[in-house]
Amino acid sequence: MLALPAGDPRNWFRNGFIHLMDCPHGNWWFYVWHRGYLGYFEQTIRKLSGDDTFAIPYWDWTASNEIPAPMFDGVLNPADSEHAKYTRNLAVFTAFIQPTLAKYWGQLSPAQQKQLDARGYTEFQKLWNDVTGFAPSLNPPDGVGVAGNIAYANPCGSRYLTRDNPKLDEKTTYNVSPFIVYSGLLPTDFYNPVNTLSFNSSRTPSHNTPPSGPDIFSVLEGFPHNKVHNYIGGVGPLDPGPYGFMTNFLSPLDPVFFLHHSNMDRLWDVWTRKQQSLGLPYLPEGPDWETYSTEPFLFFVNSEGEYVSDGRAGDYVSMERFDYDYEPGFGEKIIRQSSQLPHEKTLTAPLKGKVLGNAAVLSLPSASVKSHLANEFGSSIVAEVTLPRPEPTSSVREFDVIVGAPPDVKQVSADSPYYAGTIAFFGNMMNMTGMAPDATFVVPLPRKAALFRGMETEATANVSIRVVPSRGPAAAAPKLKSAVIQAF
Fold first, then answer.
1. Least enclosed by CB within 10 Å: which of 214, 282, 313, 450?
2. pLDDT, tens digit, for every residue of 463-473?
3. Is the dihedral of CA 55, 271, 174, 441 positive or negative?
4. What Cα–Cα distance (Å) separates residue 61 from each residue in 147, 207, 413?
5. Residue that is last in its domain, among 290, 324, 339
6. CB-CB contact of 267 with 275 (8 Å)
7. Total domain count, the chain
8. What is the pLDDT of residues 338-347, one digit of tens each?
9. From CA 29, how far away is CA 294, in angstroms rounded?
């Protein structure tokens, strides 16, 4: 794929631009779009390699918190010399790929251009500005882009983790932990406007438009997906950037992207089989299915190098479309013991917290807390925290959730008794104006009795929640828009 000319849509870099131009995040088409993207990529490898048995491996980061060692070998490393032929500096990358992309842009159908308009890419230059991190309103004409928002990465900075430093840090390891992953597998609906019950993120008018309110990130997308992307790209250690490929929307230029997303796809399959074992729906139904399944995906490329101009979301809901399945990995236990899971949508009423600055205080029945503490699979008490997206020029893209901490605790490490995970904003593109200004993250609260005050003596327990910068000055803490808590 690296050796193919830029004019071939299967070229490695052209394939990465499919993701930049079209991928959905923070909505209910997230899983199905990436399944289509993975499927055509796998078929392309089968075609070009002549190996009809090839299957993309998945990286089960819950079972192993380090990048698999072979991903540092040869072209599986984006810093390899074969990649560097095209990426050694921005001028070389531009000369190689920009003319062909501009020509492709000029051949787009009206339907494709309409989708790009909704995404914020009303002209080719706006898309290219996200490659360079340039925003006319912020940068002088001869200036460089905002470092953290450059989708391009030169070879030495293309991936933060190395052969000698392959491990996820402690906060990313928590975000991919059994507790978080099981919490993400517990919801009982493919989509539900009650976010606690929804396996998927926001329902939106299309896969390229924001919802009427904030983006709502389900547990698996908001925690393991976003945080793994960011840490491999260097968010945290390399603030304020520039980062590696995995941090922004050219993330498929790092081959580890495909192992990461294969695991996300596998977890969708685990959730699907859990639903089947419980006799529950695993896809939208009725009018929701019509809306969901007919959504056009217009930018995929098949193994022959042909554009798939008539694709729909419904084409990709089954893995049979691409003839693959998964060897068992983490999460299978939830299917074997599905009889122990809640089958009914029995939730406490949503309880809104009193918000002051970056903190909220909430109350809920003590009986719900005791049930939560006894739950084996994930969290049965979930908070929804809404905060503004970081400004394009902000050097802070990740925020820790602190639960039950004294007021003088301003920041925490992953081993703190008050740490409840890290909210990570992935892909903070400056010209992709189709993103909602606010985002809601569904946060599973830890099973720790000390976080809930009054549980033993009162009918109602209180819990405090704060959102603070994961690194950097505490003064950069966002002002919460709202906080809501519910329990199964």
1. 450
2. 999 999 998 77
3. positive
4. 28, 27, 20
5. 339
6. no
7. 2
8. 777 665 566 6
9. 11
